[in-house]
Amino acid sequence: xxxxxxxxxxxxxxxxxxxxxxxxxxxxxxxxxxxxxxxxxxxxxxxxxxxxxxxxxxxxxxxxxxxxxxxxxxxxxxxxxxxxxxxxxxxxxxxxxxxxxxxxxxxxxxxxxxxxxxxxxxxxxxxxxxxxxxxxxxxxxxxxxxxxxxxxxxxxxxxxxxxxxxxxxxxxxxxxxxxxxxxxxxxxxxxxxxxxxxxxxxxxxxxxxxxxxxxxxxxxxxxxxxxxxxxxxxxxxxxxxxxxxxxxxxxxxxxxxxxxxxxxxxxxxxxxxxxxxxxxxxxxxxxxxxxxxxxxxxxxxxxxxxxxxxxxxxxxxxxxxxxxxxxxxxxxxxxxxxxxxxxxxxxxxxxxxxxxxxxxxxxxxxxxxxxxxxxxxxxxxxxxxxxxxxxxxx
Amino acid sequence: xxxxxxxxxxxxxxxxxxxxxxxxxxxxxxxxxxxxxxxxxxxxxxxxxxxxxxxxxxxxxxxxxxxxxxxxxxxxxxxxxxxxxxxxxxxxxxxxxxxxxxxxxxxxxxxxxxxxxxxxxxxxxxxxxxxxxxxxxxxxxxxxxxxxxxxxxxxxxxxxxxxxxxxxxxxxxxxxxxxxxxxxxxxxxxxxxxxxxxxxxxxxxxxxxxxxxxxxxxxxxxxxxxxxxxxxxxxxxxxxxxxxxxxxxxxxxxxxxxxxxxxxxxxxxxxxxxxxxxxxxxxxxxxxxxxxxxxxxxxxxxxxxxxxxxxxxxxxxxxxxxxxxxxxxxxxxxxxxxxxxxxxxxxxxxxxxxxxxxxxxxxxxxxxxxxxxxxxxxxxxxxxxxxxxxxxxx
Lengths: 394, 394
Fold this sequence. Notes:
Two copies of one chain form a homodimer. By secondary structure, chain A is mostly helical. Chain A is built from 13 helices and twelve strands. Helices cover 58% and strands 7% of the residues of chain A. Chain A is globular. Chains A and B meet through β3 and α8 of A and β3 and α8 of B.
């Protein structure tokens, strides 16, 4: 990548992040009256519901804290970070046994507790990142309590599908925790070795059960021994998810200098883009079938915003790590598709849900899944990688 | 409607039903080895999963039995009806306390029990209709046992959303049970009065809580007193669902001669078509917001098969009941849209999921929701209404 292009991209991403995406959430999302983040927003940023997603609070606490940690503190970012971190600690993590709620009302009273431990994980990363931004170690303690809740409940919650007849393993938990431990490790350097061990365990789990070189695929759901499980669920591929995993692995490989792991991570990216990229209209499919059959999801060919965020990060990271210009080209392809289709230049931020042909299917700016997270995270990481590329070029 | 058109439609629907839709399910769906119906089928009819939906078994038992009851018995229909009815009675209704499973494996071993009582209701209609087709009263007893399970568990299962903070009423249960009691009443004429009373209770509930003439809308979810409830959920409209309710009500009004009820039912149809019909591409939207805001569902503008089935029935029934040619025109519009877009003339049966513009988004022929039910039911009812219109014209 040329120095000119690096500088151009740096300006562009900084402007998009600090001039468009973050102001949208500061203006419309941050709840100045009741604390935390309103996440269910329409195109103009007006709440479609004032109920608050549990995931959104921890994720937004991570974003506003990471902005301060990576770009330097700003008062409004720090205030937003504190509001989301406090709401996470005081309201989201107020479930039975310290569990985190999936949905709360505007005041933070509980509406929905789910049987998955994702809200706990997002609480942990938000609180950990905020402990660094704020310099207040009590947030790290809160993050570690959230992680202890995760550890205590893992494997104890009722399975959706009868586990004696059809036991299954899901990729989500394994992959998410790699990143959670990475963030905790940075916030809690005194215990770095222990987090690294847990990351290594999860990476081993990932390759033992989910990564299938013979199929050139990372499966979402497998039998307990890693074998195929029944039907569409067993054949389901989620290219965006696999790509996200690939950069979690690349980040680990770059830190430890493990060239073997780096190679395997780049391979997962390669498989996922080969299968997942729509040759006809561009963009990444949301779901695929490993045998090429019709995916079960009726929305399988919609282009969601977040796989494109993950793919941009993964391609630029692969380029930074390997120098292979194939990944520079892929980064430019993803970058180009994303900025031609997702941003709403009228009201700010991004649309999240396109039809296969790239037209906007639903104009919501937020819901309990599309929150203040994937877009700013990707932009922050891309900015960091561009700095690295610039330094290497100089 | 002219006698010529009536005759033409009669031939057409008989051919579509007995020459296309039913043969597809007999060939690919009926599980001749393990009993019941395989419902997760791809475009060609090959199983995408051999797991069986609990809803599908009762619904298919209804369809194959109703075919015999309305068009005269055929050996292959009766065998399919018995297979699905037996699977329903012996496998689906084998849950705790007699509850019905939502999903089972091919052998009928339980995979998923949900906290909603829909599978019990579909079991009851399938078994009741099969008692008439088979002349075997033990199926009626099994249907009444399923109904007793429904009665016993109604209101006792844990709510998804915290009911002390956000108590809610859903339209689905009220509307579905009107039809369930109608089918039971026909199968169990000795107790007709008791079913009629229960239908009248549900109709009263419907108008007390869900039907909002001031909004020209039937709401899907309301507060316990029928007031609006928070957010997108409170503003959600499901045109197909409201239209289905309208014909359940019309059927009741025609039986009892209640002109007031008929008028109100036709009004619900009118509101729902006015709001729900896509003026740009044709077809019915899947979800709308009562205030015209962006619906929360990312797939809100997809055209599902079943609302079109329900709308064809409702419009022809409104025409038969009122003689108003507006409803004849609407029937022809729905009929035309449906048969131009949904049938798969290569492999038979219908596609279920179109994009807004009418192109096919997902080619599955079946899943646990799109089963052997809406399409044959609509065709059977249309055939009955055409007979009625022909008699009236003669």
